[in-house]
Write a structure and sequence with these properties.
Length: 297
């Protein structure tokens, strides 16, 4: 019994010592991490060539918040960087063709993480279009075909929106903010508050954070090593070589069609997520482009 008591006392002392050491060590480690992040705060930043006024205290603080959040969302930020290697080569030339600043590609990052997600409100795809807005911007949306899942067509539709918003507000920053808050909503606040600069407006929590989230992801993704994200090029998600087949008739069985192309149904749907059913109904002779990967599987 005495031996057991002695062992118990020794274990208690060791445990208490380890807790004390951890408690004493942890705050200094936190301070060091905080110091490193603070040291990385950008001196100058802009969105689409429009400078962010970091000299304004709340502007600096709001950017700091989004930088801290995204620097510490390790998995999400790493995935965004990896996926960008595959998605940006599709998005960038479409933005350029439409005269849209390259920075708008970061809207897709914060909208969806560069994957085809569905919001609780019903927005879908990488650019998160609602059904009616998608149709207004020229996309086909029904149970059989949903072009919100087509990255090329949805990026073109997003460009159409950005150009309209830029024409209305005269500012790329406000155009970006309106993608979240809506043109009507942002314009209403401009009228009420009698200011025309995004950084002077008091908006809803989500829209107030929206541009700052874009700025934070832009800063981190353009300078990943600076913020502690070192990812080998071979670990980035690659763009696979593909060919496109033009279809102007109904495909009654997409699984059979996939096999005829030397792939399977799963791979066909990965590369053509806009095909929403097991068949393609096309009674009007409309031309669709179906993407077939040439390797990678």
């Amino acid at each position: 019994m005495k031996l057991i008591n002695k062992v118990a006392i020794i274990l208690t002392v060791i445990f208490a010592s380890s807790v004390f050491i951890f408690a004493a060590k942890n705050p200094s480690e936190e301070k060091e991490v905080a110091k490193e992040i603070a040291g990385d705060f950008p001196v100058k930043l802009d969105f689409a060539g429009e400078e962010t006024p970091l000299k304004i205290s709340d502007v600096k603080e709001r950017l700091d918040r989004e930088l801290l959040v995204n620097v510490n969302l390790h998995a999400s930020t790493i995935l965004a960087i990896k996926r960008a290697n595959r998605a940006f080569p599709v998005i960038e030339p479409i933005l350029k063709k439409n005269g849209i600043p390259d920075d708008f590609k970061y809207l897709a990052v914060i909208e969806s993480g560069l994957v085809n997600v569905v919001s609780p409100a019903g927005a879908r795809g990488i650019w998160q279009f609602m059904p009616d807005t998608a149709k207004e911007r020229g996309m086909e949306v029904n149970e059989n075909v949903d072009q919100r899942y087509d990255l090329e067509k949805s990026t073109q539709a997003a460009c159409s929106y950005f150009l309209s918003a830029k024409g209305k507000f005269g500012s790329w920053t406000l155009a970006a903010a309106s993608y979240n808050g809506g043109m009507t909503g942002v314009n209403k606040q401009i009228d009420i508050q009698k200011v025309t600069n995004y950084y002077d407006l008091l908006l809803t929590e989500e829209t107030s954070r929206y541009v700052f989230r874009i700025l934070a992801l832009k800063e981190i993704m353009e300078n990943p090593v600076k913020y502690g994200f070192t990812i080998a090029s071979e670990d980035l998600y690659a763009t696979l070589p593909t060919k496109k087949i033009e279809i102007d008739s109904t495909i009654t069985d997409l699984a059979d069609f996939a096999k005829e192309q030397g792939i399977n149904y799963k791979i066909l749907k990965i590369h053509n997520p806009w095909l929403r059913e097991t068949k393609l109904i096309n009674d009007t002779g409309k031309k669709y482009q179906i993407e077939i990967p040439l390797k990678g599987y």
